[in-house]
Inverse folding.
């Protein structure tokens, strides 16, 4: 252990150029990369990327029967469908209301549907 402490003290005294040369020598000698040492950051970045999807699909899973007409109106507003198509989506829940939308837009759509008593999932 004393040898390691001595080594660390010697490394502290090296210049930046000497440290760079030392790193290169270690990489060549052991066949490793200094970039691979910071593996803790890579999984965290990958996990963050997985948590934030670039698009979502809005699924309506249930509607409040007492609010069926307002729900149909909101579905028509969101989708641009005619009365018959919007009614069919509401009659056949679970149904996809909108696919591949930005997460912010998906949340906005979900809030509009929830306001009229629909149950919504973003996938």
């Amino acid at each position: 252990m004393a040898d390691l402490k001595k080594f660390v003290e010697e490394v502290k005294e090296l210049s930046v150029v000497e440290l760079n040369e030392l790193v290169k020598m270690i990489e060549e000698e052991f066949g490793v990369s200094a970039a691979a040492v910071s593996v803790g950051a890579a999984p965290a970045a990958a996990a963050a990327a997985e948590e934030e999807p670039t698009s979502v699909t809005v699924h309506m899973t249930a509607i409040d029967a007492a609010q069926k007409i307002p729900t149909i109106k909101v579905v028509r507003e969101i989708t641009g469908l005619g009365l018959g198509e919007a009614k069919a989506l509401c009659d056949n829940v679970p149904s996809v209301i909108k696919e591949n939308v930005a997460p912010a837009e998906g949340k906005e759509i979900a809030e509009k549907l929830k306001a009229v008593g629909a149950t919504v999932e973003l996938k």
Notes: The beta strands are 56-62, 95-101, 119-122. The chain has two domains: 2-50, 56-122. The chain has a mean pLDDT of 85.
